[in-house]
Structure formats: C-alpha cells, structure tokens
Amino acid sequence: MQRNLFLGVEAIGQAAIDAGISGIYAYPGTPSTEITEYIQNNKVAVERDIHREWSANEKTALEEALGMSYAGKRSMACMKHVGLNVAADVFMNAAITGIHGGLVITVADDPSQHSSQNEQDSRFYGKFAMIPVFEPSNQQEAYDMTREAFEFSEKTKLPVMIRITTRLAHSRAGVVQKEILPENELKLPENLMQFMLLPAYGRKYYQNLLDKQGWLTELSEKSEFNTFTEGKDKGLGIVTCGIAHNYLMENYPEGKCPYPVVKISQYPVPEKWLKKLENECDELLVIEEGYPLVEELLKDYFEKGTKVCGRLSGVLPRRGELNPDHVAKALGKEKAETFKVPDNLANRPPSLCAGCGHQDTYFALNEVIEEIGDGRVFSDIGCYTLGALPPYNTINTCVDMGASITMAKGASDAGLKPVFAVIGDSTFTHSGITGLLDCVVENTNVNIIIVDNEAVAMTGGQDSSAKGKIEKICEGIGVQPEHIRLFIPLKKNHDEIVEIIKEEMEYDGVSVIIGRRECIQKIARTKKINKAKKQA
Amino acid sequence: MKTDIILAGVGGQGILSIAATLGAAALNENYYLKQAETHGMSQRGGAVVSHLRISDKPIYSDLIPMGEADIILSVEPLESLRYLPYLSQGGSLVTNTTEFKNIPNYPELDKTFEELRKKFKIVQIDADKIARDIGNPKASNMVMLGAASPFINIHDEIIVEGIQTIFKQKGENIVCLNTKAFEAGKKFTGQ
Fold it and tell me: DSSP letters along A197-245, please?
C-alpha cells in the first residue's frame, strides 16, 4: 500500500481534506501551525477552494468554523493549547448548541513547554465541555481518527476535539490515505433555533448534552481506537493514553507486554474496560502525556481500594513530556549506564536573528530605561519575547497574548509611571486592540510600542492580519494622531528612536509608537519562493 | 535491521534535509520510519535535535531511548556533545568541525573530543570545506550524511536514490552536486 511520510500535523490536515471539509480556521501557534499551512498548500484544497486564510485569533477562528457548521458544511478549527483559552467561550457553548455540519477542533498541547508559557492539558477542556475527545497515538491514527471525527461529530451532533501533543505533531511516519469524500451541501439547520442560547433554550440544550453522556461512554467502549489487550501477569494493569502507549510498547520490543493493557484514544473513558482491568489486576499504572487526568479519575480518594500509580503518585514525573525511559523506570526496568554530557557544555538558547529589527528597538528602549530604572516594560508573546534574555534584558513580563498593553494599563492605574508595553503587530490584532481601547477610554498614561515586522514571525512568518492597518486602527479607536509615531528599527536610526520614545514618555496619555521593518526571515523566504516560481 | 540516529545542530542549519533524504530512502526500501523534529521557538538560533529511527519492524516510540542511538550525527561540534546519553555502547559520533558561535561562552572542545575518543568512535570532518571544494557550499549536510553512511544500515545506492528524490525538483545539476558531496563525505570516513 502507498505510504506517504507525514508529520502528525500533516496527517491531520490531509485527513481533514479527505473528510470533505469546506474550511479550516486557525491562528498560528506551535505545535499546531502546520495543519493549516498543509491545507493552504494542498492541491485539492486549492482546487476545491477550501477556506484556508488565517483568522485574527483562536476565538474568531472557532466562531467562524461554527458558522460554517451552521450552514451544514464540515469545518475544522485548530490551535495550540493556550489558544483554546482564547476560544474557551465559544468552545464551551458550542458543546451546548451542538453542530450541524461536522465540526472538529484540533488542539495541540505542548508538554515540556518547548514553545509555550505553560503545559495545560486540553483533555480537561474536553471533559469540562462534555464533548468527545480523540487522542491518536501515532501518525496513522492521527489520519484515521481525524477522518472519522467528522462523521462522529455529525452522528453525535457534537463538536469533536482532537488532542495531540508536540511529539506527535512534529514527528514523521508513513501514513496510508483513504479516498477523498465530497463536501457537504449548503443546508440550514432543521431547527433554526439550534444555535440560540437564550436561557430558556440553553437549559434544554444543556439537558440534551447531559443525556448524551451515557451514549458517548458506550461509543468509547465500542471504539476500535480503545483496546483491551490481555496479559498473563495480573500483578499490574496498565492504562495508556494517546502517544504514551508507544512509550510503554517501546519497552517490549517484540510487542508483547506481560500485563493487561487498556489503551485509551477516545474519551469519555471506556468505563467497561477500566472496570475489567481493575477487577483483574492487583495494582494499576496510568501512563498519560500531560496532566494526570485519568489517574485522578481512577485514584481512590480514601485509599481503601486498588492502588493507582502514575504522575500523581510519583512513579512518573509530575511535569514535562514523557519518554520511553520514564516508562522503563516506572516498570522497574534497570537501564545500563549511559555516556555523560561533558561538564563544559554550554546552553544555546533561542535568540533574535542577526539583523532582526527588534534588536534595534530594544537597544533604543534600553537607553531610555537606563535613565528611569528597570521594571517598567510589559510585553507578551512573539519573537520579541526573546528581549527578556541577554544581551537585551529589556522586557519584564510575558503572560498571554495582548497582556502587554492591559498589564501596563493596570500598572499605570496603580501609579507606576512611565510604563511601556511592547507588542507585535499580529499579537496586537489578535488581542491588543481591546486593551488599547480601554487605555483610550481613560486616556491612561501608557507608551505602547508596536514592534511591527509585518508577519507572525515566531511560527514561521505567516501573514499578519495587522498588515497595513495599524495606524488606522489606532486612530479609529481614538488615539491622538500626533501621538501615533513611526520609526524604522535600524542601527543608523538609533538616536531618532531614542528621541521619539523620550518625547512620548513626556506625554501624559496614550502613545502608540510603531517600529516597522519586515521580518528578515520572511524577506528571505519570500525571495526563495519567488525564485522557485521563476524557475518553474 | 534497525538504525537509530540523533541528528543535532543549530536552528537554521538545515539538519532536516539529512532527515528528509534518509526518510525518502527508507520509504523506497519499504522500511518503517519515525522522525521527530524541533519546530517553533528553538529554531531561532537555538539547539535543535531530530530523532530518526529506521527499522524493518514497526517502530513504537518517536523518541530514541537513552543509550540506544547507533549514531549521533551533528552538523556542529558543540551540539554533537549535547545528546551523548543517547549514544549506545559501540555507537559512533560523526560531527562537522565548523563551529557555530552565537553564544558568548562557547567552550574550547579539543580536549573534550580527545577524552571522548577513548570511549567511542568519533569522526570529525570539515564538511563546509569539503563542500566548498566540490563547488557547492550548500551541500555540507550531504557531506555529513556521506560521512555517517558507513554506520547506517542502508545501502549507499538507496541513500543516493533518496538524494535524487529530495533534490530532483531543483534540477539535475543540484542532484549531481549533492551526490558528489555524499560520496566525498563517505570517502573521508573510509580513510
């Protein structure tokens, strides 16, 4: 059978196309970005003209996907784990409205925080919203489960979450594809009030959701992705979730684990299989990537029942990504001594690229800060967050998208003046505009520096929704035009940039200072693409 | 048959072209393959690593267990040392000698390599120079792949087919240059 090498995220993108989606909606975020990029570059997706433009943020993305579902068509929204916090409002409520066309929400978690500010486990959101969650254990399952998720969504009339983690997202393996399905026809919901959550309707729909829970558990018990594998040694029963299954099986090269194993890839958890395991075995070990969700569920609060081990009990690390070695240790397997890393090894943290405009902005801002003292620069998420590291040491905070402006406002309200906010162009349109409006309404004394590199740079230079609109947005919201300043972040402009920042610092009100120069990585990439086009 | 390779380098050095070439070769041979790579923040000039596993049997873990890598293949000398706990007893380390110094505290490595040489096989190769000499400075990664090839359980012809698969879009000339780079690296290790 023909196999193609796919990253986990690419397998999901391909499966969504093959399931007949009419739209993908997303905001870039590692490790989820390449799902949308894959669809953007896919020939069939282009021919079918599947919607594949970036959205302003995860909330708008999921709402747009839900709108497409309302119109009867299949759609996918995807985001990184913290993106789901942004989309949480629509996420929770879409569970109550249910769907019309199949709606699949892919959320990519980042245990070990390779590129994220936390390692929250999205399965909790799935449980919170009481919707089915699929958690594939490998690339083929990522393809098969995604393709099936749309049908499952239409069958249960609920959104389905696909939860992956960094390792599956960014690991490649051979994947066998199935045939491509046609798109759904445009069609209104049978009940035109299905998406109306006025309390009187909302109560009824919430009851419907509650009534479905038993059925969802039954479907999990019947799912081919949840399995019970017999084992001779009943001293231990093992539960694996998603990709953690691979780390267990890696320890048994011939594929034969001596203990009974329940593999969970579909939630709500398959109660029947877990009860059977508990019945047969002396002790349970839960291996899951992320928070101890299943372990907590099975753990006996008063400790009178079967012992349950895992990340909570401490046999597996509480924090961070799992690997085969953690699981070997939990199974009591002795590992041979390994070579040591030499003592003189130096760390190599990520850094701003040589020639990046953010550097010039930070060096200028540092000169101003030197006079007024440290601790006054609020920032958030993007390449510019690297300004927290040497040699810049400029910014003091990074909490969530847009929090630069709003935290600066709060600090200013408290009396800390002057204060600065450093925010990227794309982060500004993602979640900065409303905060700026708050500042304008009260004419708060804040100095907002928008470091505009005309791209969503950290995730690979996707187009920014902000492009060509920033001054108009600021003016439209009500920032005084004379306090919207522009500079080009280049070494030769250093003195001018310092001067502009100082002038605006003197102003007792809202200043927006825009440093605009395109991301050098994006320029290089565009050149490469254009060259390739010319050759073709 | 099984080969587990740790590919190491600095974000932007293009270690993934090596992984892609071996991936294409493995697929042509109908081998199983898993290859975990680093995306996102670390790509900004930070340390990056890829776990590449090829086998004639199904592979479970995307990550190589500690002490089980047959080869550490690094396109930068400091980075070749970061993942030593993954190297198996009897494994080999193949590294480029061109240093990528984007940190202020880059250590002196000559003595370190001298010490490690007593413990396992090390191939140090100036892949950048060899690539320049054959007229394609961009092909240093294929020089590295060639240098590592004697330790990889895949026939050279199949890897060369992989090179053809990966570079054919860029034209016959580029395929030739990269094949030449591969051969030059292989020759270096052979000596």
Answer: --HHHHHHHHHHHHHHHHHHHHHHHH-TTSEEE--S-TT-EEEEETTHH
For residue B178, the one-letter residue type is N
- Smallest Cβ–Cβ distance between A250 and the set B39, B61, B67 belongs to B61
Select from A167, A323, A348 the Cβ nearest to the Cβ of B10: A348
Does A326 score more than 80 pLDDT?
Answer: yes
Contacts 24+ apart (CB under 8 A), A273-282: A273/A221, A273/A226, A273/A227, A273/A228, A274/A239, A274/A298, A276/A228, A277/A228, A277/A237, A277/A239, A278/A237, A278/A306, A280/A234, A280/A237, A281/A234, A281/A235, A281/A236, A281/A237, A281/A306, A282/A234, A282/A235, A282/A236, A282/A306, A282/A307
Cα of A182 vs its chain's centroid, Å: 29
Average pLDDT over residues A275-280: 98
Q: Which among A339, A356, A528 is the top mutation candidate for probing chain B, defined by the most B β-carbons within 10 Å of its own β-carbon?
A: A339
Residues A429-442 pLDDT 10s: 999 999 999 999 99
The tokens describing B19, both together, are: 């992984």
Q: How far is A110 from chain B (nearest CA, A)?
A: 11
The architecture (CATH level 2) of A227-330 comes to: 3-Layer(aba) Sandwich (3.40)
Q: Identify the residue with better confidence: A194 or B28.
A: A194
Q: What b-and-e string marks burial along A28-47, b requiring 16 or more CB atoms within 10 Å of the CB? A: bbbbbbbbbbbbbebeebee
How far is the first Cα of chain B from the last one, in angstroms, to the nearest whole number? 26
Sort A367 into a burial class: Cβ within 10 Å, 0-12 / 13-18 / 19+: middle
Contacts with B27 from chain A: Cβ below 8 Å: 3, 5, 174
List the one residue out of A315, A335, A337 whose CA is nearest residue A325: A335
Which top CATH class is A357-522? alpha beta
Average pLDDT, chain A: 96
- Cα-Cα-Cα-Cα torsion A362, A364, A365, A368, nearest 10 degrees, comes to 150
Query: Nearest-CA distance from A528 to chain B in Å?
Result: 12
Domain ranges of chain A: 4-222, 227-330, 357-522
Closest chain A C-alpha to B187 CA, distance in angstroms: 28
For a pLDDT cut of 70, what percent of chain A falls above it?
A: 99
How many angstroms separate the CA atoms of A256 and A248, rounded? 10
**Is the domain A4-222 a CATH 3.40.50.970 member?**
yes
Q: Is the peptide bond prior to A391 cis by the omega test (within 30 degrees of 0)?
A: yes
Is 70 exceeded by the pLDDT of residue B42?
no
Q: What is the pLDDT of residue A327?
A: 98
Q: Which helix (H) or strand (E) holds A403?
A: helix A403-414
Yes or no, beta carbons of B107 and A30 under 8 Å apart: no
